[in-house]
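To: structure desk
From: M.T.
Subject: fold request, one chain
Message: Could you run this one when you get a chance? Sequence is below, nothing fancy, just the single chain.
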Amino acid sequence: EKLTRQIFDAIYYFSIFIYAKVIVSGVDFIPECYGGAGNCDSMGMHWPKMKFTEKMRWYIIIQFGHHLHNLVYHTVAMKSVGNYFEMITHHYATVVSLFYSYFTNWEDYALIILVSHDVSDGFLNFGKALRDVGWGSTMLMNANYALLAFYWFYHDDRHDDDCRVKCDEQRAYS
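Reply: Done. Structure tokens follow.
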């Protein structure tokens, strides 16, 4: 059961990442450093009446459902894990944030945050699946965690910093 969940989650996160990149392509209120056609000042420019497409709304709803499922599943079925309360807090914060962003029309920010974390969650779950099948000390496992570390450091640090610098430059020249 644990292995099946890890494999499903790895496939889910990689697939939902690709789906998100496709649906934000060319969108004027998503910064280009996240795959859209806008800049940082265009974030929230349509608030409070967001111009989210139906596919974008479905993306948020699917993500909400997935994270709500994780919250309920973890609360009920995983009481014996060592990081129980940390994961409950994580899942609760994610569900509340998604709920809040959807009903206050801040989905553009929610989408960017989710896209920023989907690939790393995919690598993390794929690594757990490799561990669970006994490939914990293989080259594939090492490559997976090297890609995870690269993505964390590049995307969550370098990429986001580059995006902020680009936004600051755009504001300075406006």
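Reply (cont.): Residues 139-172 form the longest helix (34 residues). Let me know if you need anything else for the meeting.
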